[in-house]
Design brief:
The protein is an alpha+beta fold. It is built from 1 helix and 6 strands; from the N terminus they run ββββββα. The protein has a two-stranded antiparallel ribbon.
């Protein structure tokens, strides 16, 4: 498990994470992840928003809400 303040010194590039309730597990180390909505890079020490169900990160609360609304619409239409 990754401590929120743990640094991945020496690992460049995009990390692969498993998103859990209240924490993330590093699958492949790196410096950042990409927002699933905007494509923006998110440094690991700034990652605050993610979906456990969708296993994807978000750059901010607005991006998270956008994805929730998108997926809620698909669930209703199914």
């Amino acid at each position: 498990m990754m401590n929120r303040f743990e640094r991945n010194f020496g690992f460049k590039g995009e990390a692969k994470l498993r998103y859990l309730d209240g924490e993330v597990q590093v699958v492949a180390p790196g410096e950042f992840v990409r927002c699933a909505v905007t494509g923006e890079t998110i440094p690991l020490d700034e990652l605050r928003y993610w979906s456990v169900a969708l296993q994807e990160p978000y750059v901010d609360a607005a991006a998270s809400l956008k994805r929730v609304l998108e997926t809620a619409g698909k669930a209703k239409g199914a």
